Amino acid sequence: MAIQFKTLESTEIPELLEVFNSAFSDYALPMRMEEAIFVRKLFIEGVSLGFSAGAFDGDKLVGFILHGLDEFNGEKRVFNAATGVVPSHRGLRLAEQMYNYILPVLKAQGYRHHQLEVLNGNIKAERAYEKVGFRKSRDLFGYEGTVAPQIISGVEIKEVKYLDWIKVQSFWDVQPAWQNHTPTVQRTMKDQKIITAYVDGNLAGYLVYDTLNGRSKQFAVKKEYRRQGIGTALLANVTQALGKVNFVNYDDNDKGAKAFFDALGLKPNYHLYEMTLIYP
C-alpha cells in the first residue's frame, strides 16, 4: 500500500465531505454534515485547502488534516479544524505522517504556531498528536441549560448590529477558543446576533451567538459590573430567544465563569483538550 501525501487544493468538496463523514462516522461525538454546513465550517474556521494535508491511496483520499489560518497580535497561527482517517486505513500512523509532510510547508510561509482540540478520552488521537510534538495547553468545556427570565433594575438589554471588538477584549479574563475568537465570528457576522447590556449608558456586558446553530460564541461582563445580575440577564435573553443556552469550547481557566454557570444550573456536556505546538 503506497500512500502519498499532498495538499488538498485540488480535492473537490463532495469528495472531501464523503471522506470527512466516513472518518467521523464512529467518533465519540458522532458527526455527519451536509455539504452546505461543511462549506460553512470551512469558511468560518478559515480553512485553506492549499495548506491542508491529504493522505491518498492511489487517487483515493483516505485521510486529511484541515487547517485554518489566521493572525493574532501579529503572529501567524494554524488551527487544526479536523483530522480524520477512514476506518479502512487506520493504524498506519497517517495523522503523524500528514503532519510530517505539512509542517515544513507551513513553516516556509511563516506559520509555526499550531493548535488543535481533542476530545477527552480519545487517547489514540492524543498520543498521535504528542508524537508530533503537541502538548496540552488548556481544558475546554461545553455548557448548556436554561436561565429563567430576569428584569434587572437599571440594566438595559438590547440587540445591536455593531460592537467595538477591541474595547470588549478588556472585558475578557481568558482568550476565546479558535471557533469563538473575533476573526472567526466576524467572518459570518450576518449570521451572528449581538446582545448587549447597558448601565447608565455604558456598555457593561455582551453576548454573541450564532443564529444558525444557537451556539454562544462570546460572553463577557466588564469587571466593575459583575455580580449585579447582568450576566444572568444576558443568558436569560438567549434562553428566551433560543430555548436554551449552548456554550461551546469555554476555557476552564475562567474559574469565575465556571462558578457562575454552575450557580445558574448550566451543565457541562463535553470536555476537550486544546493542544499546541511551536514548530522549530
Descriptive notes:
Keywords: Transferase. It comes from Flavobacterium beibuense. It is a single chain. This protein is an alpha+beta fold. The protein folds into two domains: 3-133, Gcn5-related N-acetyltransferase (GNAT) (Aminopeptidase, 3-Layer(aba) Sandwich); 142-271, 3-Layer(aba) Sandwich (Aminopeptidase). Helix content is 28%, strand content 36%. It has eight helices and twelve strands. The protein has helices at 13-23, 35-44, 94-107, 123-132, 165-168, 182-186, 230-242, 255-264, and strands spanning 3-7, 53-57, 60-72, 75-85, 113-119, 135-145, 155-160, 192-199, 202-210, 216-221, 245-251, 267-278. The protein has an eight-stranded mixed sheet with strand order 1-2-3-4-5-12-6-11, sandwiched between helices. α3 (94-107) packs parallel to α4 (123-132). The longest helix has 14 residues, at 94-107. The mean pLDDT is 95.
Report mean pLDDT, rounded to a whole number.
Answer: 95
Unreliably modeled segments: none
- Helix share bin: 25-40%
Compute the number of helices.
8
Give a short overview.
By secondary structure, this protein is an alpha+beta fold. It folds into 2 domains: 3-133, Aminopeptidase; 142-271, 3-Layer(aba) Sandwich (Aminopeptidase).
